[in-house]
């Protein structure tokens, strides 16, 4: 179950972590602490969103091709949505593509994507509690550059943020079925019986014969 969050609640949690008693409304406050939070809030939130495929920020859309095709390598260019942060999945699966300058380049004529959206930055609402703690600690660590000279506090906040990131990623990964990645034949070969490759790896002489020593 998730709680309801706002820009102000996240900002005040970060200020608590820095050791500030200030309680502010990030949308209206104009003092020094507020300006520091306002400068850092969006960049830190964006950086946190780019780290994983957060289910609460996922959107799915069909992309419309640009009227201007790439001059080489690919046949079609699809402008990405303005709230695009990170690609989660592309369909058809296993499509060859490249993202450049706000465009998804590919040879496919029809493309749909699943992506992480930035919409939750202005209205965090029902973000996951573990992500909220991850974000608050990352924001607090960024605030320490202006609000405190404590290098130790900054490190403690970043270490705690890293822990909350792994906790959030682990919990959210259980809320869906992952698509298996194709396995490299070189990796798979390590698990095959040695007799399948015509070499007995328990026989030093045969290993030398096969040139595998």
Outline of this structure?
With 213 residues, the chain is α+β, with helices and mostly antiparallel strands. It has helices spanning 7-18, 32-49, 129-147, 151-172, 185-189, 204-209; strands spanning 58-62, 76-79, 84-91, 97-100, 103-106, 112-117.
Q: How would you sum up this structure, described in words?
A:
This protein has helices at 7-18, 32-49, 129-147, 151-172, 185-189, 204-209, and strands spanning 58-62, 76-79, 84-91, 97-100, 103-106, 112-117. The chain is built from six helices and six strands. Strand 4 and strand 5 (103-106) form a beta hairpin. By secondary structure, the protein is α+β, with helices and mostly antiparallel strands. The strands form two sheets. Strands 1-6-3 form a three-stranded antiparallel beta sheet, with no helix packed on it. The chain has a three-stranded antiparallel beta sheet with strand order 2-5-4, with no helix packed on it.
Report the biggest beta sheet as strand number plus sense, adding barrel if it closes: 3 strands, antiparallel
Question: Rg from C-alpha positions?
Answer: 24 Å
> What sequence of helices (H) and strands (E) makes up the elements?
HHEEEEEEHHHH
- Helix and strand content put the structural class at alpha+beta
- Percent helix: 25-40%
- What is the CA–CA distance across the termini? 56 Å
Strand content: 5-15%
* Weakly predicted, low-confidence segments: 180-201, 204-213
Instruction: Please tell me the overall pLDDT.
Output: 83
Question: What is the overall silhouette?
Answer: elongated
Oligomerization category of the chains in this entry: single chain
Number of helices: 6
Strands in their spatial order, largest beta sheet: 1-6-3
Number of strands: 6
């Amino acid at each position: 179950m998730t709680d309801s969050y706002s820009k102000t609640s996240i900002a005040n949690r970060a200020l608590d972590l820095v050791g500030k008693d200030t309680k502010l409304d990030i949308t209206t406050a104009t003092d020094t602490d507020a300006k520091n939070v306002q400068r850092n809030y969006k960049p830190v939130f964006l950086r946190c969103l780019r780290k994983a495929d957060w289910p609460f920020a996922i959107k799915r859309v069909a992309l419309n091709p640009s009227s201007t095709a790439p001059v080489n390598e690919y046949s079609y260019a699809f402008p990405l949505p303005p709230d695009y942060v990170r690609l989660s999945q592309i369909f058809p699966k296993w499509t060859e593509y490249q993202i450049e300058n706000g465009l998804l380049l590919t040879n496919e004529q029809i493309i749909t994507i699943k992506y992480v959206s930035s919409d939750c930055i202005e209205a965090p609402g029902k973000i996951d509690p573990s992500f909220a703690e991850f974000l608050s600690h990352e924001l607090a660590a960024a605030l320490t550059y202006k609000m405190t000279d404590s290098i130790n506090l900054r490190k403690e906040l970043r270490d705690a943020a890293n822990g909350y990131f792994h906790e959030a990623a682990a919990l959210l990964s259980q809320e869906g079925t992952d698509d298996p990645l194709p396995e490299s034949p070189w990796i798979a070969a390590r698990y095959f019986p040695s007799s399948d490759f015509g070499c007995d790896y328990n026989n030093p002489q045969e290993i030398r014969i096969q040139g595998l020593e």
